[in-house]
């Protein structure tokens, strides 16, 4: 078969078309590259221009200002001096305020509630009048019982007189002894009747007393649950009101079972362990008391043991069912090296601090932490009294950094155990 030929060239047509397509692609790629290079080279870049101008202005300032007062390696810091003091060791636990006594005032007799004497929320004393139930039915029952007692007492008195006469007549052999014995039994019968009547009188008097409702304990009375004019019965479940004893008051809290031996060793020895109650945010101490009791078993679901602390609560700062944080003082670390907590840094090797040397350079010192109390922490190993540590500005430091003291002893470590307690490590 003969291949057709182009009129102008001797190369076959089938071989010329692919070569033309290839040349077009090469030219297209070259043009795109040229456009991209031109855009990169000549397109304005404001950020760089601004940076260059800033550098130029800064260089001018440095040249006009002369020698700087601080070298670029100096870092401003705030320091504190390690001190010797006592630090309290606390165990912390979340607790709930619980009243020692809570009583629902209920009715012991039925009738119409005539008067209510208390105001809701007031403090009442034991025996103080709270309400009156209609006493008239009970007064009538008392009168009836007293009348029956008087009647039977008269019969008893008469029977005793007859018994005395019969005894005289028997000595004169005027009556048979059987008659005397019968009279003696009648006297004893009337004596029994009088005793029953007397119990009826006492019961009526008791019912009349119950009609006058009084406070069984001292404390704060809650909202009124029944209004005057209603009919009440001893079977009412709601009662008149609830009285809660607020002074003293207790807090039930829990601590981990691992800390139980530490507490029991002091508690069983008769030591009163001080307990401080703080608000929910632990920013304010509400009251101070002592450990009252330890539960008899560990809660296996939580791994904690419940304890109860008691507080005088003279200012009524603690309220039933209020959530508080308890700080239980279990020990005092005496003569400890104390620094601010802010001076302690954490690294791959553990806790460390930056110690400022006499030549105004810092060195890294690994430390072993002890108990924490408020803003202070005890150092068990790695630091001595009088050494200066960096409290602020440590994030820009490294071993051997030159520092400038912006402020000295801004954070003072406490030398006593009176500051707000924190968690033990």
Folded structure, characterized:
With 425 residues, this protein is of the alpha+beta class. Helices cover 30% and strands 34% of the residues. The chain contains five helices and 22 strands. The strands form four sheets. Strands 1, 16, 17, 18, 21 and 22 form a six-stranded mixed sheet that branches. A six-stranded antiparallel beta barrel has the order 2-11-14-13-12-15. Helix 3 (136-171) runs antiparallel to helix 4. It is elongated. The N and C termini lie far apart (99 Å). 22% of the residues are buried. Residues 1-16, 46-72 and 412-425 have low confidence and may be disordered.
Overall shape: elongated
User: Given the helix and strand composition, which structural class is it?
Assistant: alpha+beta
Strand and helix order: HHEEEEEEHHEEEEEHEEEEEEEEEEE
Regions with little confidence, pLDDT below 50 for 5+ residues: 1-16, 46-72, 412-425
Radius of gyration: 48 Å
Number of contiguous helices: 5
Quick one: biggest sheet?
6 strands, mixed
DSSP strand count: 22
The helicity comes to: 25-40%
Percent in strands: 25-35%
How far apart lie the N and C ends? 99 Å
Instruction: Quote the average pLDDT.
Output: 83
